[in-house]
Every structure is written in C-alpha cells, then in structure tokens.
Amino acid sequence: MTATTTSTTTPTTAPTATPSIGIIGSGAIGSAVATILARHGIPATLSNSRGPDSLKDLVRELGPSIKAGTREEAASKDIVFVAVNWGRLPAALAGLPNFGGRIVIDTNNPIEAPLFKPAELNGRLSSEIVADLVPGARVVKAFNHLAAALLATDPADKGGKRVMFYSGDDAAAKATVAALITKLGFSGIDLGALAVGARLAQFPGGPLPILNLVQFG
C-alpha cells in the first residue's frame, strides 16, 4: 500500500501599504491638515501655488514627516487633500493628469475670499463642482466643517473624540478616509452619498458646519 501525503499551504496576505498623502493648498485648512498629520508622524507632501521654496519655514515647523513639494507631486499621491480658496480652485487643479481612481478629499467651502461672500453654484453642490475639476478621482467630502483653528487641535476633548463628518459615492474610498480619520483621533460619522452628506456639511447652507460635536464611549 502506498501512502499519499497531501501538502497544504496556508495562503498569506500581504500587509496593506499605507496610502501616500498629498495636500494641495497651504492656507488655513491645508496647514491644519498638515498639522494633524504631523502630530501622528504621518508622511505627507504639502504644496501651494508659490512653489516648495515658499513652504520651507512651515514644513520645518511641522517636523520631518511633512515635506514641501510641487502641486504635481502632491496630486500624485494615493490620497490628495484639496484645500484651496474657492475662487482659485480651477487654476489650482488645472492641467493635472487624470486621477485614475485615486482619492481626493474635498475640504473646500464655496466662499469667495476675502469678503466671505457665498459663491454662485447655480443649484449645484460644491462637491459636484470639485469633482468636475479632478477627473478620474473618487471624491470624499471631509475636513471642511470645522474651523481651521479647531481642526488643528487635538481631537481628544473632555474625555471623548471630536466628530468628523464625511461623505462620498465610493464605499472603498470612504472606508479608506474613515480609517485615516480614526487614525488621526477623530470619531468619523458617515453621512452617506455626496448628494446627501455634502449638502449637510457644506458651508454656507448646511446645518453641520462649525458644530464642535464630541462623541463619548
């Protein structure tokens, strides 16, 4: 009798790579995003319209995990925060290659600086307009409903975690952003699709912006 030995191999799963992060815009919100990423030692490339040299002092202050780069370098990352004054968005995003399914986090609010006048959207959501400017991107609305100074602070508050709303039409993109929100110490709340969530979180007009909500337990 011949014995037959069957060899079994347990499949291994490769570890999930940490998404690379870019930030287009170094104003109040872009700098706040860079600050909270730096607090957790998460690498990111920060860019603006004036070029990397203009960011030397800021990135030195933020620490080694944040580096200055060009707009194109920031836009090439897996997750790209877009944090630009509303009127400058078209110029800031013009000419970039197709995003090819990468994630764009829309942190913008349709306010015209410096007078803080609501922009004319012609009945559209601001996130719909942003999506048109980033072809091929999976857009998630987040990081826009808190004032910049509050966004940059530690989200641990009074024994709880500051709430971060997010919304989007791609479940996998939202899951990736939700994981980042959690990693940064916030309590993420999914508002659903952009048609619903972006309207709730948009400033002006939505009921959720500027609310400093904390989740306990």
List its salient traits:
217 residues, alpha/beta, 10-stranded mixed β-sheet, 12 strands
Structural description of this entry:
There is one protein chain. This protein has 8 helices and 12 strands. By secondary structure, the protein is α/β, with parallel strands linked by helices. The chain has a single domain, classed as NAD(P)-binding Rossmann-like Domain (Rossmann fold, 3-Layer(aba) Sandwich), CATH 3.40.50. The strands form 2 sheets. Strands 1, 2, 3, 4, 5, 8, 9, 10, 11 and 12 form a 10-stranded mixed sheet that branches. The longest helix is centred in the last third of the chain and has 13 residues, at about 170-185. It is globular, with a radius of gyration of 19 Å. The N and C termini lie far apart (about 65 Å).
How would you summarize the topology of this molecule?
Blueprint: E1 21-24, H1 28-39, E2 44-47, H2 56-62, E3 66-68, H3 71-75, E4 79-82, H4 89-93, E5 103-106, E6 111-112, E7 117-118, H5 126-133, E8 138-142, H6 148-151, E9 156-157, E10 160-168, H7 171-183, E11 187-190, H8 194-201, E12 214-215
Parallel strand pairs: 1-2, 1-4, 2-3, 4-5, 5-8, 10-11
Antiparallel strand pairs: 6-7, 8-10, 9-10, 10-12
Short description:
The chain is of the alpha/beta class and 217 residues long. The chain is 29% helix and 21% strand. The protein has a single domain (21-215), classed as Rossmann fold, CATH 3.40.50.720.
> Would you tell me the overall average pLDDT?
91
Radius of gyration equals 19 Å
Count of helical regions: 8
In CATH, the architecture is: 3-Layer(aba) Sandwich
CATH topology-level name:
Rossmann fold
Q: Give the low-pLDDT segments.
A: 1-15
State the secondary-structure class: alpha/beta
Measured by DSSP, the beta-strand proportion falls in: 15-25%
* Coarse shape: globular
**N-to-C series of helices and strands:** EHEHEHEHEEEHEHEEHEHE
The CATH superfamily is identified as NAD(P)-binding Rossmann-like Domain
Q: Could you describe the largest sheet, including whether it forms a barrel?
A: 10 strands, mixed
Give the distance, in angstroms, between the N- and C-terminal Cα atoms: 64 Å
Report helical residue fraction.
25-40%
Q: What is the CATH C-level name?
A: Alpha Beta
Number of strands: 12
When the domains are counted, the total is: 1
